[in-house]
Each structure stands twice: as structure tokens, then as C-alpha cells.
Amino acid sequence: MKIIFFTENIYCGGMDSFLITLINNWPDQRDDITIVGNQGHPGLDVIGQRLSRKCRIVRHQLPMYYNLLQKIKRHEKFGLILKVLLPLQYLLFVYYIFALRKILLTDRPDRMMVVAGNYPGGDTCRAAVISWALFAKGPKAIFNFHNMVIVTPWGKKWIEFFIDRLVGSFSLQLITVSNAAAQSMQNRPAMVSMKKTFYIYNGIDAPKYDSARREKTLREELGLDAGSKLCLMMGTYEERKGHKFLLRSFQKVVNKIPSAHLIICGHGFPEEIDVVRKVVEQLDMAKYVHLFGFRDDVSFLIQSVDVLLVSSQAFESFGLTCVEAMAQRVPVVATQVGGLPEVVRDGDGGYCLPPDDVEGYASQIIRLLEDDGLRKVQGEKGYRRYQRMFTGERMARKYSEIICREI
Q1: N or C: which end of the chain has fewer CB within 10 A?
Q2: For the chain, which residues make up each domain, given as ranges?
Q3: Tens digits of per-residue pLDDT, 176-192?
Q4: 3.40.50.2000, 2.60.40.1220, 1.10.10.10, 2.170.130.10: which CATH number matches 211-389?
């Protein structure tokens, strides 16, 4: 069977990890798999490097409305320009539907699943579902999204309602990553009555990391004492990830434990990283906080730290980094946002706190850093939870059953 996974993205991150795990664990090695994505997506190279089975990667060069949006955001008359350009977004959408025909159908695939960040996701993602329905002869496509569903802006309600009806009608199913994300489809009235939204928990492979291959430990890399306590935050430098909340909490941690250090890493535009750097400076935390861009040595980072921190304030549908930590017996302190409580149960691999509870969040970090026994117990519980619910094999098998079933 020939299968296409179609995606649109501008960051390296969780969606790339999902595709890598899904394809590497795909049950039937005879299936011919292709990934189609936008030329500007930096994660396509990462995916290509980490796949362990044959997979073709196709980069299309369709013009992205988002790229134009980023350019005009810096203009002082941004709001006015955006109103003028609004019709262009939907003209491009129609163009995508027809332009994608050749891209999607070149090799006469049998099945397609769109992999999007949130819903509605990138414009090419929804256009791909419609294009597939109009021009392909196989079963309807599956729309897979990895973040919470966004409420339609007032000025776009009528046209978005119409597009949602098309996407819902032309999709076999809409599959997301948690019950919280599935429930957020209430934000799109055109979709609710169709009752096509389901969820499959994300999974990962057990990490394979050989510490002997590293010339330096993470503490040595950072110039820290061997006894330093390390916390790690991995995520894009988007505001919703809660860097300000995290830094305010960690300030209280270092007041109690001066040997504590925080590593922050993830994909981000220079202006996004600068915002976080300024907060670090304002809180006088430069000595304790180490900022990095995207790093591909995730296993090394997690195995090197004592606690993983997830400080999201909104739109967190799952929390893949939580699972990555649990798979390596590292406890997690997360916020009660979106699907995070479905992944991190209090006392079963870590703790979940309200997203505005700076004191409580800091207190749980301090507890784990000060109590080696508690850290070990929570790490073991998290590992068992990972084995039960979040393995890559389990996830890939469930997707395969849906995508490849006879219609």
C-alpha cells in the first residue's frame, strides 16, 4: 500500500518526532511511505536523518501565506495591511487545492493522512484534504492534529465555517493526541455535529543513548560542578510555553537551592529567544539559566538532568517531552493545561500544578531536587506509565489499523 503523510510546519519539534516514531514503528514494512511538506520546514532534514526505514520526502514550493504574514507583522500598520490581505489568504487556499493535485497524486497513492499542528493548522493541510477528496480515487483522507482547536476570529466566521464543513465532510476521521484536544473541537461549530474526532495518545521509542560516546557530561559542557542540580525545559520559544512563569518559579528554586541550574532549549526565531533572554536578565538569573536553540541530542539532555519542567500556559494538547522524560525515569513537573494531566498524573511519574501557581510549582521542584529517594520513586513510576500507555509501537499499530483498514 502507498501512503502519504502530508504536513506543514515552520518549527522543528513534536510533530517531527511524531512522524519519525510513527514511520519507524509502522507494522507493515511492505507499505510504501512518502512525506510531503513545505520547502521551508526545517524539520524535514531531521526526519530524514532519523528514519530507520525507507521513506521518500517531497518538498513542495507552494507560496506560504504565513511567510507573508511574518514580513508584515513588523510594519506599524500591521492591522490595516492584514485586513487588506485577508482575501489573498483564501485565494491562495483555493490555489492550493488545485496545485496539490499533481503533488499528491504523482505516484498514485492509496491512503493519505494530514499531520497538522493544531486545527485548523496550516492552510495547505486543509486544502490537501479537499484536494484528495476531489481528485484521488481512494478512501477519504484522515486529518491528524497535535494541538488544541483554535476559535475562529469573528471576521472569518462565515468562510471558516464553510471550509470546516468541507474538511469535516471530506475527512474519514479527525484524530488528535488527547481527550482534551478532542474536546476542544467544540470551538468549531461546523465540526461538532459530525462526531468524527477521536484521539490516540502519542508514543515514543525507548531511547538508545550511549554515554560513553560523549566527550563531556552536560555539567562539564556548562562548566558546572558535578554536584549541581539540573532541570530541563524543552519546547519552542513561543509565549504559550510559559517561559516567564517558569523563570519566576525557578528564581524561588535557586533561592532555596543555589546549586540548581535550568537548561532551556528549543526551536525559536531570534526575536522569540531574545524575549526570554531579557526576562532572564530582568530576574538576575543569568548565572543559573542556560539558553539554547534547537538541539537534536534529546536523550543525552534528559538523561543528564534531575527533573524535566513543562510550564505551558495554553494550547498544550499532550506533552511529548513528558513521555520522553518518563521513558528515561526522569520525573516531571508540569502545569494543568490541556492534555498534560492525562500524561502526567500526580504522584505517578511527577506532578501537575495550576499554570498560575508559581509558589506551588517551585515547591514541587524543590522537593524533587532535595529528595533523591522521591526522585527515584517518581522516575520508576513514570517509566512504568510510559510502558503501559505511550510506546511508539502501540501508537503506530493504532494508526495503521485506521489508515490501512478496508473501507
Answers
A1: C
A2: 2-205+392-403, 211-389
A3: 999 999 999 999 999 98
A4: 3.40.50.2000
Contact 289, 247 (CB under 8 A): yes
171 strand-pairing partners? 141
pLDDT of amino acid 157: 92
Question: Which CATH number among 2.60.120.1440, 3.40.50.2000, 3.50.50.60, 3.30.70.20 corresponds to the domain 2-205+392-403?
Answer: 3.40.50.2000
| pLDDT tens per residue, range 90-108 | 989 999 999 999 999 999 9
Q: Whole-angstrom Cα distance, residue 392 to residue 63?
A: 34
Shortest CA distance to 280 belongs to which of 259, 255, 251? 251
Q: Extract the C-alpha cell encoding 193.
A: 455535529
The length of the chain is 407
How far apart (Å, rounded) are the C-alpha atoms in residues 341 and 354? 10
H or E segment and range at residue 161: helix 157-170
CA distance 178 to 128: 23
Query: How far apart (Å, rounded) are the C-alpha atoms in residues 350 and 377?
Result: 10
On average, the pLDDT of the chain sits at 92
Contact call for residues 218 and 300 (beta carbons, < 8 A): yes
User: What is the pTM for the complete model shown?
Assistant: 0.86
Is residue 232 within 8 A of residue 305, CB to CB? The reply is: yes
Q: Give start and end residues of each alpha helix (H) in 344-391.
A: 358-370, 372-389
Residues in Cβ contact with 397 at an 8 Å cutoff, skipping those fewer than 6 apart: 25, 27
Contact 325, 308 (CB under 8 A): yes
In whole angstroms, what is the distance from residue 85 CA to residue 138 CA? Answer: 35
